[in-house]
Specification:
By secondary structure, this protein is mainly α. Among the domains are: 76 residues, Tetratricopeptide repeat domain (Serine Threonine Protein Phosphatase 5, Tetratricopeptide repeat); 59 residues, Serine Threonine Protein Phosphatase 5, Tetratricopeptide repeat (Alpha Horseshoe), CATH 1.25.40; 82 residues, Alpha Horseshoe (Serine Threonine Protein Phosphatase 5, Tetratricopeptide repeat), CATH 1.25.40. Helix content is 77%, strand content 0%. The protein has 19 helices and no strands. The chain starts with a helix and ends in an 8-residue tail after the last helix.
Length: 340
């Protein structure tokens, strides 16, 4: 009899305690919601934490606290709260969306894809999957999800940019340029994107369009580094504006007068565009820096021949072959060193 009375008393005490805890949890939850509405996020977070102390299965309090943490940019705490809410309600669409975004923002791309696949009727899930697969270097899947997202929302510059990078990895340069055009069309002020599009056109030998985008990049504040001047200068050269190209490239040579690689590139560019006198000048400057450069000496000899001084050019080529016998194969095959 005493045992039964003790059992009933225990049950009654547990019921009363549970009811009190539930009341306390709701009290602090509602208090937190008021503080959250008033913008008092630190106070709201404390109230929500107290609410789940009283009721560890209070899903709504975890969600509210997660959103409060996001407002305070306390990302790790927000993720912890939403993760707890997900454990309690694994089908909660709001929680899944939050976790999908958080995993992506925290560069946890595999988890982002996993949670994006749980999303239903949320177009952004395709965006997250596509961007995540790009970072995971699965470019075929990235293309699939990014294009799927853009079929529904074609005003996202960042996605077009990522799609352009994806096509570059897939070695589809035409599609890359098309996507990049759309990206800069939606966000024309991104100087780095404009410059990158210019380099894409440069690689396609469309030097006039390359110059146009290099100019736009500069107008929008792109830093004119030596690399910028080099690409710009060679685009000028290959588009036929030799004088301007040399003037641009000389900016780099004034900064780095012994830059043998640049001098060599300029010499070959002059040779390619049949500006043989200018080519000879640059080959000579290279030989002043390195008299033992047999390849450059051979090219100087070829340039003399192009200028009509055949005998002198042949003697110089012969001397270069004496210095480096491997150059003889270019004469035998009527080729230039370095594929020229």
């Amino acid at each position: 009899m005493k045992t039964l009375i003790f059992f009933l008393a225990s049950c009654l005490f547990s019921t009363i305690t549970f009811s009190q805890n539930a009341d306390s949890a709701n009290f602090y939850y509602n208090k937190g919601l008021k503080a959250q509405t008033d913008g008092l996020f630190a106070i709201a977070a404390k109230d929500f934490e107290t609410a789940v102390d009283f009721n560890p299965a209070f899903t709504e309090a975890y969600i509210a606290n997660g959103e409060t943490n996001l407002s305070m940019r306390a990302i790790s705490k927000a993720q912890a709260n939403f993760s707890k809410a997900f454990q309690l309600q694994p089908d909660n669409a709001e929680v899944i969306r939050h976790l999908t975004t958080l995993y992506f923002d925290n560069h946890q791309y595999q988890k982002a894809v996993e949670f994006a696949e749980k999303c239903k009727d949320w177009d952004t899930a395709q965006r997250v999957s596509g961007m995540s697969f790009y970072h995971l270097e699965d470019y075929r899947k990235a293309e699939k999800y990014l294009t799927g997202y853009l079929n529904k929302s074609n005003s996202d510059a960042e996605v077009f940019y990522t799609l352009a990078q994806t096509y570059i990895e897939l070695e589809n340069e035409k599609a890359a340029i098309d996507a990049m055009e759309k990206a800069v069309g939606l966000n024309a002020g991104r100087s780095a994107w404009l410059y990158e599009l210019g380099t894409m056109y440069y690689s396609q030998n469309d030097f006039k369009k390359a110059l146009a985008y290099f100019d736009l990049a500069a107008q929008n504040g792109y830093n004119k580094t030596n690399a910028f001047y080099e690409n710009y200068g060679f685009a000028q050269l290959y588009s036929g504006d030799t004088e301007a190209g040399i003037q641009t490239l000389n900016i780099i040579l004034q900064r780095k007068p012994s830059n043998k690689e640049l001098l060599n590139n300029m010499a070959h560019a002059m040779y390619d565009t049949q500006k043989y006198k200018d080519a000879l000048d640059y080959f000579t400057r290279i030989l002043d820096l390195d008299p033992k450069d047999a390849v450059t000496l051979y090219m100087a000899g070829m340039t003399f021949q192009k200028l009509g001084q055949k005998e002198k050019g042949q003697k110089i080529c012969d001397h270069a072959i004496e210095m480096d016998p491997s150059l003889a194969k270019y004469r035998q095959k009527n080729q230039m060193p370095m594929g020229l």
